Amino acid sequence: MLLTRAMGGGPSQDLDARFLFQTATLADSSAALTAPHPNSACLIVRDSRVVGDGFLVGQGTTPSEVQACLKAGELARGATAYLNLEPGDCHGDDSGVSSLIQAGVSRVVIGLRHPLEHFRNKAIKDLRIAKTQVDVIGEGQKVGSNLKEALKACRAVNAPLLYRTAFKAPFSTLKYAMTLDGKIATNSGHSSWISSPISRERVFSSRARCDAVVIGGNTVRRDNPKLTTRKDSGHLPARIVLSCGLNLPDDAHLWDVNDAPTMVMTQRGANKRLQERLRQKGVEIVEFDFLSPKAVIDYCYERGFLSIFWECGGTLAALAISSGVIHKVMAFVAPKIIGGAKAPSPVGEMGMIEMTQALDLKDVSFEQIGPDMLVSGYLHPLPELNFASSEWAESTKVSLDLRTIISLNHAWDAYGAFSTFSPHSITAASFSGEVIRWKTVEHYYQAQKFDGVQHPLAMECVAKIKVALSPEEASRLGRTLQHQRTDLVRSDWDSVQKDIMYRALYAKFHEYPHLKSLLLSTSGSVLVDRSSHDVLYDKGTSGSNLLGDSLMQLRAQLLEQCVKDSENTQRTAASDIESLST
Where is the CMP/dCMP-type deaminase domain (predicted)? Predict the structure, then answer.
């Protein structure tokens, strides 16, 4: 029965609460790095002592369970593993679960079942089949206050994934800084700086935890922001500008996509001249028939974004709140007073005429940051999804037979193994003849842009790509130098890049049989790469489908080989029968 040991008494509950809370805290430390994957960590505990730990560092890196088991070594046998989230391996090798089983862990405590249906309960089932005790906190028996707080921490660290599952939308946070009298700028519009440097550092780190930062055209014209995390590495969110008429300056910090990718969302047909200029600079343009916060958030959901950080002015903030797309509010209140009847407030007109119409924040927290006060709360409380009664079955899996198009834009979905970011190392040769082990297909692909180029910057970039911790970092290194110094990209790149992608995928799918089986199972379906944020594989929404086309080409070759193998087997069998009959 669930939680018979974990819930049996106060001391045991307190011990589970302590280590589960510690696991959630460790998982949260990588929130700026793992997107679009959830934040996961693992602690292995023996005799009330942590003997192994690990957390997911970035997309395409070693699972937290594998790290923890390696650190624990023989001490993992008979120990308890604490996981803030049920493992959900989107790459087809189940290495996280396998590592726990092979290490001999006797008990696994899980804070939250996986919210995504194609992962949910699979790891729990596999562990129980291996005779490992699995306790899912909050299921089976009443839990104490300490364990409730630990469970809440597990939910909070992966709030974006829970909101995405519950509301079919990215988790959206509205952030603003205001004076004590509720102003975000003076009458003249001057707003630098309301909050303190310490508060601004918190904003930078909050941006890094999101997939995209949203502002309106007024903010671009008035403040000319960069919207970066002020870091050269790690996860860098996309910058999104909303502008109906596209009345934006030709030159702005946001048009420099070396710092981070930029997307401009506008209404169809607006300012075509500026659209073309921005495209030439590498800015992505997305047109809507009618631009609205709801349309934008629906688009971001389809793009696979987990979390959005809104740093817009009062007019756009009011529209976003009224549209129901804002889930959380972060308000930095500075101990300053500027007055001004026409000075703008953080949220514009919403049509409320009575206090009874006011929107109440839930689960409010207060934190002093330097001289400022940070007030945070939820407009839509954290979803409490009940997955206890949902058992893993064949019916929960995606039916490939019913699908004609398989989208590859979600790196953590049922086809995450097809991603160039998947954690499958390959052995591949460069065109210069060097044969080495590459961490991922992405590492190999990015390095080949500068293969054989005898220039210090190109050679340095290739060296950095080879050792880059994550495929996201490798991708950023390659894209940045390609954009900054087009003269350093190998002269034949346009003609060989398809060959290079195919060569990398061939190595990957031939080395890992389970990936080959997954690819063959998509026979009859069209594989489409819609990750238009990656200009390498899909240059805009109407661009090329390099990854999808390469996968389908490889699939066709594998299917042809299967047919040949089958025919050879039949001929051999027929020959054997004929020999026996004579």
Answer: 14-135
Q: How is residue 373 annotated by DSSP? A: E
- Give the pLDDT confidence of 222-260 residue by residue, as tens digits: 888 888 887 766 677 889 999 999 999 999 999 988 878
Q: Which residues pair with 429 in a beta bridge?
A: 435
State how far the Cα of 466 lies from the Cα of 241, in Å rounded to an integer. Answer: 34
Q: SS in 3 state form for 72-132?
A: HHHHHCCCEEEECCCCCCCCCCCHHHHHHHHHCCCEEEECCCCCCCCCCCHHHHHHHHCCC
Dump pLDDT digits (tens) for 328-363: 999 999 999 998 888 888 998 888 888 888 889 988
Asked if residue 49 belongs to a domain, the reply is yes
Supply the pTM of this predicted model.
Answer: 0.73
Distance CA 107, CA 128 (A): 10
The reply to whether 135 and 224 lie within a common domain is no
Going by C-beta distance under 8 Å and a sequence separation of 6 or more, which residues neighbour residue 65? 42, 54, 81, 83, 87, 95, 96, 97, 99, 100
Active site residue 201: no
Beta carbons of 72 and 79 less than 8 angstroms apart? yes
Do 138 and 217 sit in the same domain of this protein?
Answer: no
Annotated catalytic residue within 65, 311, 442, 472? 65
| Assigned domain for 575 exists | no
Looking up tokens 């039949």 gives 570
Both 560 and 518 in a single domain? yes
